[in-house]
Every structure is written in structure tokens, then in C-alpha cells.
Write a structure and sequence with these properties.
This protein is mainly alpha-helical and 98 residues long. It is built from 4 helices and no strands. The longest helix is centred in the N-terminal third of the chain and has 12 residues.
Length: 98
């Protein structure tokens, strides 16, 4: 039989503050010394949205100026040109890369 957890106002406040600062569920559970599922269920009962997954920031791309351009018909170039058009998914018309 599972042991009932006595949730207090301070533990609820701690749960909400850790989650607001971006801590994942397992870290919040470890801090409160309870199970991960117990923390998720308590947060649901407190009104937190169910899908509060923290998204990492997008990675910045760095343009390499010393890179040689890709040759015509290269799969990366051809896909970039044809995405969203009526010929999307079609092979390059000339057999360059086999």
C-alpha cells in the first residue's frame, strides 16, 4: 500500500517556485524527497498545465565563410530548392550523385 504524502503550503510553494525556475520534474521530486509521479500529480491538482516541458533555446548557426559552395545537384541544395514545390521529393534531373 502506498504511503500518503502530507502536502503542506510550504511544499506546494517550493514545488511551484522550482518548476517556475525551469527545474525538471525529477529535480523537483528529489528536492521535496518524494516520487516524480507524486510531484507531477500534485502540480496537476494545483492547476499547473500538464505539458510544461522546458524547451531549450534554439542553437545559433554560424556561417562558415571559408567553405566552398556545394556543386549543382547536391542533395542538400536540391532539397532546399524543391521543398514546398510540386517537384518535392523528385531526384535531380541529371545523374551527378549516384
Amino acid at each position: 500500500m502506498p504511503i500518503a504524502i502530507a502536502w503542506t503550503q510550504s511544499s506546494d510553494t517550493r514545488l511551484l517556485s522550482l518548476r517556475a525556475r525551469g527545474f525538471p520534474w525529477y529535480a523537483v521530486a528529489a528536492d521535496l524527497r518524494v516520487g516524480r509521479n507524486a510531484v507531477i500529480e500534485r502540480a496537476r491538482r494545483l492547476g499547473l498545465p500538464p505539458l510544461t516541458r522546458i524547451q531549450p533555446p534554439p542553437r545559433a548557426t554560424v556561417e562558415r565563410v571559408d567553405r566552398q559552395p556545394l556543386p549543382p545537384g547536391h542533395p542538400i541544395c536540391w532539397q532546399a530548392i524543391t521543398n514546398g514545390t510540386s517537384i518535392e521529393g523528385e531526384p535531380y534531373p541529371y545523374p551527378v550523385f549516384l
